[in-house]
Write a structure and sequence with these properties.
Layout lengths: L8 H9 L11 H29 L3 H25 L6 H8 L2 H35 L21 H16 L1 H26 L23 H12 L5 H7 L7 H30 L13 H7 L2 E3 L5 E3 L2 H35 L18 H17 L2 H29 L14 H15 L3 H25 L9 H28 L5 H29 L1
Antiparallel strand pairs: 1-2
Length: 549
């Protein structure tokens, strides 16, 4: 009862079967695999890989992808069991609601905004950078002020906003149309990846791998072992495609059979391609080439180095047509990544809205298109703000920490579900429980520890904002918990919030002490935000006592 009341499994399945009122079932196993590949290939391969190699891991970025894939494999097995049991929109949010109760489900649902919405902003920023490179080939130059965030010396990133709007409009039109578009793009994208690997392999220069693991600079996370793990954590969000597959469970034709196939097969295919691609990319040119703004478009940089050095010391690419063709394919591929992420986020909030935890507008289904069109529109606005004004490295790290946190809760959920509902039908069973889920938790938590402290600050601040929404809206409008909250419920949420303010203050002081650059704005904001929320949580405990009296 109260905060930790669990949503009955039969109720979840009833919601999934209400196809005449809900989302249209149009996705086959093949479409789900394509959906996963559409999200996975692109987000990591074509965007932040270069920055992670240049700043953290060096040529050993391939090892970082293997570490990240290991964590994904454990989490993917857990996701597959849940998706086959609970074929309904919402992904980790829904799974947490069924196993650990409403409060934990709220935490994970709010966290998924970082995974999907902020992740789509990351990719849209990289899309913008590739567009600039493509136009440069034709001597068409966009004012840098309108292709960069204010923190990068610009005004706003207009191309990034444009692609977010276009993909959001496509999602509003319909899932079937979106899936068809995605399948076409995935076919093109995989072909381009294979061409890049095949052609680029002959231009690998062994000296670019020396040293394969650069010595640590003396700063934690900059090369050496800590750099490899930090790079793994940074590129981890590149694997969230299989997670996005689970959010489309309610639109799958045969979810009990097709969801595990979509999740595990897309993850396996992409892991192999990631390792090969990263090996070629760091072999054709030094990782130093990926520093600066070009780091967000590393493939274009690598392609420019597939050639021979001219007499003037300038590299002459052997395949000038390939430069343009691959960038076109990347732009198209990025579009599918953004679309899948935006779709995943809208489906999570669709489920949360149906449970009354957020306003009803997020679960309104368009009478003609039968999609959550208003939901898509609101996230179009939210993601556009991130894409326009926040640097790529910040949104990328926020996505990674949100993804890792989500995977940890899903792994824990499998252990809880096996004990709470051992006889519930499962079309797919995670092997070696509890070993596999425990390894998933350990791997993901290990990578989280290696992320920068300012990323932890942003995660804590975001989660505290989520606590505010739950306290002042979710607890009042929860359908499953209507009339069941008591003073203990308010006290539990408030004490949890107070604990997070203490953690925020500690992390802020640690970051302020260790920061090599001026962090006074972030530090002062963190302290003021924490003090303000201490007051809010004490007031909330009193408010709960008065309302329940």
């Amino acid at each position: 009862m109260g905060l930790f009341i669990r949503k009955p499994l039969n109720q979840l399945l009833d919601e999934a079967s209400e196809s005449e009122k809900g989302l249209k079932k149009t996705l086959s196993a093949g479409a789900l695999v394509a959906l996963g590949i559409g999200a996975i290939i692109g987000a990591g391969l074509f965007s932040i890989t270069g920055m992670a190699a240049a700043n953290n891991a060096g040529p050993a970025i391939t090892l970082s992808f293997i570490v990240a894939a290991l964590g994904c494999a454990f989490a993917g097995l857990c996701y597959a069991e849940f998706a086959s049991m609970i074929p309904i929109a919402g992904s980790a949010y829904t799974y947490s609601f069924a196993t650990m109760g409403e409060f934990v489900a709220w935490i994970i649902g709010w966290d998924l905004v970082l995974e999907y919405a902020v992740g789509s902003a990351t990719v849209s920023i990289s899309w913008s950078r590739y567009l600039v490179k493509f136009l440069d080939y034709y001597n068409i130059h966009i004012d840098p002020a309108f292709t960069s965030s204010p923190a990068e010396g610009g005004i706003m990133n207009i191309p990034a906003v444009f692609i977010v709007i276009m993909m959001s409009l496509l999602l509003m039109k319909g899932t079937k149309e979106s899936a068809f578009f995605n399948t076409l793009i995935v076919t093109l994208k995989v072909a381009v990846v294979l061409i890049f690997i095949a052609l680029g392999w002959q231009y690998i220069r062994p000296e670019n791998y020396e040293p394969y693991i650069p010595a640590n600079t003396g700063t934690f996370g900059e090369f050496g072992f800590s750099g490899i793990i930090r790079a793994a954590a940074i590129v981890f969000f590149a694997y969230i495609g299989f997670d996005a597959v689970s959010t489309a469970a309610q639109e799958a034709k045969n979810p009990k059979r097709d969801m595990p196939i979509g999740i595990l097969l897309s993850l396996g295919i992409c892991t192999l391609l990631y390792i090969l691609f990263a090996h070629v990319m760091t072999g054709v040119t030094s990782v130093e080439s990926f520093k600066g703004k070009d780091g967000i478009a590393p493939v274009a940089v690598a392609i420019d180095h597939m050639g021979k050095m001219g007499a003037d010391g300038v590299m002459v690419p052997d395949y000038p047509w390939l430069n343009k063709a691959i960038i076109i394919a990347i732009l198209a591929g990025y579009s599918s990544v953004i679309m899948v992420m935006l779709m995943g986020q809208s489906r999570v909030f669709f489920s949360m809205s149906r449970d009354g935890l957020i306003p009803r507008v997020f679960s309104d289904v368009h009478p003609k298109f039968r999609t959550p069109a208003r939901n898509n529109f609101l996230f179009m606005l939210f993601v556009s703000l991130f894409a326009a004004f926040v640097p790529a490295n910040i949104v990328g790290e926020m996505t990674s920490i949100g993804t890792l946190f989500a995977f940890i809760l899903v792994c824990i959920g499998v252990i809880v579900m096996r004990r709470a509902m051992p006889e519930a039908p499962r079309a797919f069973r995670t092997p070696l429980v509890p070993l596999v889920p425990i390894l998933g938790v350990a791997t993901c938590l290990f990578m989280m520890v290696f992320l920068p402290l300012d990323t932890w600050i942003r995660l804590i601040v975001w989660m505290m904002i989520g606590f505010d929404v739950y306290l002042f809206y979710g607890m009042k409008h929860s359908k499953l918990n209507s009339g069941l909250f008591n003073q203990k419920s308010y006290k539990t949420v408030s004490i949890t919030g107070l604990a997070m303010t203490v953690v925020l203050i500690i992390v802020a002081f640690l970051h302020h002490s260790w920061a090599e650059t001026d962090d006074s704005i972030l530090f002062n904001f963190s302290i003021i935000f924490a003090v303000l929320h201490v007051l809010i949580y004490f007031v909330t405990m009193r408010k709960g006592r008065k309302e329940l009296a």
